[in-house]
Amino acid sequence: MMRRRRRSERAGQGGAALFLSLLLLMLLTVTGVSAVQESRLESRMARNAHDGLLALQAAEAALASGERLLRRLGPAGVTEDGGVGGILPGRVYGDAARWLRAATWAEGARVVDLDLPVAEPPRFVIEPVAVRADGVPVFRVTARGVGGSSDAVILLQSTYALDAGGGARLSWREVTPWPGSR
After folding, report:
1. Cβ neighbours, 10 Å, residue 15
2. What is the pTM assigned to this prediction?
3. 182 in Cβ contact with 100 (< 8 Å)
4. Mean pLDDT by 10-residue block, N- to C-terminus, for the chain (182 residues)?
5. Helix spans in the chain (H)
């Protein structure tokens, strides 16, 4: 009688163990797939952050190059009609800012050589803004940096007063890229 009882107990448990093992295997598979997807997402986020930092570094280098050019030329070397490459002529009141046009970056901007793995070389343009009461000209330097891909674009602007002592940065800001700027 003992033998019969053991056989009947085993016969009822054989399917339950298989079902539980398949359920556990499916749970482990779903967990593994979600971990791989999360890893891909984190990798893409890190790559985008790296591209943004490259674009910022490129734009900062271009901004510094524009300010160095202004210091090198001095107040006497810069004319309002834009006599030097990268320096745009004065803007007519009501006219749209030239740095808002994509063509400005393709044609008129001055390129900066930079040893960074960027999709495009950084560029800058200089525009005369005003003349202070003391006769010191004030310029806007706008720099455009692109990261490792052309999707990461950063624009920086500084306002620079060019006096006899070489000049000084008055302000600095990051400009939000617009849809047509890429």
Report:
1. 9
2. 0.71
3. no
4. 57 74 93 92 89 92 90 71 57 64 73 83 86 88 90 92 85 75 48
5. 2-77, 102-103
Helix (H, G, I), strand (E, B) or coil at 145: strand
- What is residue 29's DSSP assignment? H
DSSP 8-class letter at 108? I
Question: How far is residue 143's CA from residue 160's CA, in Å, rounded to a whole number?
Answer: 13
Amino acid at 56: L
> Pick from 79, 73, 88, 75: which is nearest to 140 by CA?
88
Interatomic CA distance for residues 174 and 157, integer angstroms: 6
Pairing of strands 110-111, 137-146: unpaired
Burial of 10 (C-beta count, 10 Å sphere; 0-12/13-18/19+): exposed
Q: Which amino acid is at 16?
A: A
